[in-house]
Design a protein that fits this description.
Blueprint lengths: L5 E6 L4 H4 L2 H10 L4 H11 L3 E2 L2 E2 L2 E2 L3 E2 L11 H18 L6 E3 L2 E3 L1 E4 L2 E7 L1 H19 L9 E5 L3 H10 L3 E2 L4
Parallel strand pairs: 10-11
Antiparallel strand pairs: 1-9, 1-10, 2-5, 3-4, 6-7, 8-9
Helix pairs in contact: 2-3, 2-4, 4-5, 5-6
Length: about 180
């Protein structure tokens, strides 16, 4: 890496599949071109879902579910990832969030399942913008960072920059070896 003022952040989603807002899910699917029978089936699953609790062998009154994808549903990871891709796109397009240059290549983020890894230059100047963007996305989508499971790897040769950057990051910062 040419620039020695960068950070790699591994972001873990907090209870990822359980938090996604149903109306946002449906709008997102529609906005990415899912329509017709496919969208109708997903709407049938998510527009007015209910759950029951069985207590001592007796089924209690149904109650509405307002967030989350269905447990054990094979579509759940895909639906979550479609929603997460909106956040990834917003991060990629945000010019204030500078990507790392590695040789001739540029890297800004990678997605794997519900986790996101970000590769950012000028961490001190970028972190606030990144966290604000994720927070705003979370308000409409239901997405939230699991701060305890997320981790940052800070690479800088400047002690002042390192101290200032550490103050802005809510995640654990990996120890240097």
């Amino acid at each position: 890496m040419k620039n020695k003022n960068c950070i790699i952040i591994s972001i873990d989603a907090e209870i990822s599949f359980d938090k996604i807002q149903h109306p946002f899910l449906i709008k997102t699917l529609s906005s990415v071109g899912i329509q017709g029978s496919y969208l109708d089936i997903i709407k049938a699953l998510y527009e007015r879902p209910t759950a029951n609790i069985i207590l001592n062998g007796q089924k209690l009154k149904a109650f509405p579910l307002r967030t989350g994808t269905r447990q054990e549903c094979r579509l759940s990871p895909l639906l979550f990832n479609i929603v997460l891709e909106l956040l990834a796109t917003a991060i990629r397009q945000e010019e204030k969030i500078k990507r790392i240059h590695i040789g001739m290549e540029e890297a800004k983020l990678s997605l794997f399942a519900e986790d996101m890894i970000l590769y950012i230059e000028n961490a001190k100047d970028t972190i606030k913008c990144l966290l604000d963007l994720i927070k705003e996305f979370g308000k409409v989508a239901g997405y939230k960072i699991n701060v305890k499971k997320s981790m940052a790897f800070l690479y800088t040769n400047d002690e002042l920059t390192e101290r200032e950057t550490k103050k802005t990051i809510p995640f654990t910062i990996a120890a240097k070896n």
